[in-house]
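Reviewers of the previous submission asked for a worked example of the structure-prediction workflow described in the proposal, so we include one complete record here. The input consisted solely of the amino acid sequence. No template or homolog information was supplied to the procedure at any stage.
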Amino acid sequence: MSSEHILTELVDSVMVVRLNRGEKKNALTQAMYTALTDALKQADEDPQVRSILLTGTPDCFCSGNDIADFLQMKTITPSDDVPVLRFMKTLAHVTKPVVAAINGPAIGVGTTVLLHVDLAYAGEKARFQMPFVNIGICPEYASTYLLPRMIGHVKAAELMLLGEAFTAADAVDYRLINAVLPDAEVYEHALAKARRLAEQPPAALRTSKELLKRWRRDLIDEIIPAEAVHFMSMLQGEEAKEALTAFMQKRKPDFSNFS
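From that input alone, the workflow returned the following structure tokens.
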């Protein structure tokens, strides 16, 4: 189910889902989240598909959310059914294995989405960042729950509260990705792993994935909307306004008058 900015292709038994908005560094809009959700659901329900490969363009995985698009949304409540939350819950519950191939920037949700895939491979020039606090908002996609439990509180706090960029080699050390490859080899390596998964006994694969994620499944559905309420409220707030204005004016934001 391809759209202009989300392309899908069945390669053998692997459904390749590609972010294709290179002119905007694959920043995600609500329309793109809807297309991603549809693609994931179709892949999960199609008996021809045995695994899923999520990737971007050759020079960029995902630069995060399209802020201008998000600013058009109203403040949401945990019960709201909006495209971004549908996508997040869909990926979190996909029964088939999901592999990610990352080249270039993986910013914001471009990093937090990796907490919900099964295998991930990045190029040497890939750069990761969770700059939520930097722009006056809070982290999302259940990352405030998952990341500390995966890498420990102090490292998670460092990555989220300082919001500094880190390399693909760092991401391996933090156990966010499986391996670093030369940039030109990332996609084929990830596709080979997705093909290998597609050759595994399907029921055993699905059951094993379900058991691996069983400990967090119910909490994820609770945490995703809880974070989103704060995220959307803060995105409309004065701190975010100052951060985004400073970015547009190419100056350092000044939060000295905020308390």
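The chain has one domain: 6-183+201-205. We consider this example representative of the routine output the project will generate in years two and three.
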